[in-house]
Input
Amino acid sequence: MKQFDMAQLIVDLKGDPELISWLHAVSANTLALMGHANALEALARAQGGWRPSNDLERADMAYQTALVHMDLGNLEAAEQFAFTVNGGGWHRPVGVFASILRATIYVQAGEPRGALMAKSAIDAVAPLHSVRARERLQPLITALEARPRSDHRDLARIARRIAAGRSGSTEV
Output
């Protein structure tokens, strides 16, 4: 957080509103991970200064917003924002990230289609070489492991293998 605060101070002096907004979004995400009440305030500052020029940029902020809400336990709001990421295109990394996020939300909430969504998200990551996409599987793995059904545990095992960089079939 100190690094974000210092970066924000430097950027504030230069006055780049887009960069300032993005720093607020990253700060909001970090605060949410710590369960800090100011996360929504930082998120509001981020959204207030964000002026996206296209659907891809709107999708990026929607994804950040969904992450903050998920980390704060606001699963319904997180799902709504994750759903809007679709406008940014599922072929982009943020689309795959949103797929993982939505699956995590559904698994955490105990939704019946959570396992199917998790499998789809894991399948989307499996062929990628993206370390970031593999890292984004961790909250899904945790959510799957917390569920009592064996198919959830099997999916968690497969996701863990893929997150570690080992490919394999996602057949359960």
Summary: The radius of gyration is 17 Å. The chain has two domains: 1-51, 55-172. The mean pLDDT is 83. DSSP finds ten helices and no strands in the chain.
